[in-house]
Amino acid sequence: MKYSVYENIRKIRELKNLTREYVAAELKMSTSGYGKIERGDVDLTVSKLIEISKVLEVSIEFIFKFDVSIFFSETR
């Protein structure tokens, strides 16, 4: 299943146990403004994506290619 960049940002943030409030403060923006990014309600600029990747401590490539299923794979 493919996830959008917006969903990947949210999932990475949650896996790192970071709050929306924390990430928004690091980005110097409102919590509601950051929430709009995670929901995909606003277009994400390259510069904002770079800032988000720094706060999450991951590469931009990681955000694009992130697949949560790698953490929850079944063994048979």
TrEMBL record:
Gene3D superfamilies: lambda repressor-like DNA-binding domains. GO terms for cellular component: cytosol. Signal peptide: none annotated. It comes from the Bacteria. Residues 9-63 form the HTH cro/C1-type domain. SMART domains: HTH_XRE. Keywords: DNA-binding. GO terms for molecular function: DNA binding; DNA-binding transcription factor activity. It holds the Pfam family HTH_3. This is DNA-binding transcriptional regulator, XRE-family HTH domain. It comes from Flavobacterium phragmitis.
